[in-house]
Amino acid sequence: MSLTLFALTGAALVGLGVYGLLARPHMLRRIIAFNLIGSGLFLFFGAAAARGTGLDPIPQALIITGIVVALSASALAVGLVVALARSSGTAYLPDEEGRL
User: Fold this and answer.
1) Are residues 16 and 36 in contact, defined by beta-carbon separation less than 8 angstroms?
2) Which of 5, 32, 96, 97 has its CA at 20 to 30 Å from residue 68's CA atom?
3) What class is the 2-87 domain?
4) The whole model's pTM is what?
């Protein structure tokens, strides 16, 4: 029962992250939404790996590696957003017509 709850919670986090990624124009909110998608995937993969009969350290190692990579990618993305905000004065990307 609890593994199903973890898998459903991971799927809900992915859904919320996709909604936030598509619905929010502010770049920092998009970074947070992208991190929410990653966290949901890590939770879902952890629940899927725990369904096996034996203890397999490979999925756990992959999840930990993914968390480290996601943290460093998030730091890089926030740095790029800060540079964008300093150069253009806003943290929004222009739309197709060039409006902010």
Assistant:
1) yes
2) 5
3) mainly alpha
4) 0.81
